[in-house]
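From the pipeline queue, job 12 of 40. The input is one protein chain; the requested action is below.

Action: predict structure.
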Amino acid sequence: MSQILSTDEIDALMMGLEEGTIDLDEIDEDMPSASKDEKKTTPFTFGQKTAIRVGALPGLDLINEHLASQLSFKLTQKVGREVHVQPKTTTNQVFGRFLHTVEPPIFINILRVEPSQSMALISIDGDVMYTVLEGFFGGPGDSERPFRNFSPFEMKVIDRIMDVAREQIELSWKKLDPSFRLVLARWENQPQFAAVMPLDETVFLITFSVEVGDAEGNITICFPAVILELFKQQLKQGFQQKEEVEGASAWMDALKNELSLVRVDMTPVMGTVEMSVEQMLNLKVGDEFILGTDMSEEMAVQIGGMDKFMCHAGVVDGKRAIRITRTVQPQK
């Protein structure tokens, strides 16, 4: 009804309803029916938990790529053997279903996320951890190990390794919020004792594949959905734009870390001798050469055929050794 009734018209309408002179059925028939194009209300249940579309957050993929490269570099340094970490999946799941899929042997860190005061989990497969421990203590790193509990001494080593993982995860997410922190609450190796959130709570899982020698497994980060909600806008736009402005520094860091793992050969050059092809062909066992180099003088150390350092030669514990004395400045 588009027309506003006056006071007299309202009084007349009320009187007609009281006296019965107005037929309500006739009024309903005269009322226009609702248009088919009219918008209808959508039912909504406030208690229903909806999943978050993690695929629509490109900033999250960038964080995971950077985190994987940092974990590969830092864990390789800590463990003493090559560790390869790659992003695998990022999914939503109900927390109870996630715990049901986790099977021993497993190592679980239970963390408190600050400043939100929510809880989070970091889990690593037992096969990977057994291989890391075997290599750490000088063993062959055999991944075929029966399930057993970790000893107190092994737990100290594992805590140091997991400290590296926690630190790198924290640094990666600090780009979104400088106050972001992961505080260790306790550890578990039985999934049923890691139920620190309601079983019907929606969580998002970030899974990384890990290779240590012949052993393969996963590192899984379980965050509550509230963490993703807090940073959703930054992961959609702000964080991505910031990375573009900064020149994709995360990719540069990853490239530097990968290059730092490349092995190079160092060759100390004690001296050189020039000879003809005929002299070379006539060489035989027992021939001697005078290099014309005083052993007390500095000699060059070549890397890739170029002089990089200068050194002195000597003997340490009965073995030949060199001591770097200075760096050779590249010629302009």
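Job complete. Confidence is low (pLDDT under 50) at residues 44-50, 240-245.
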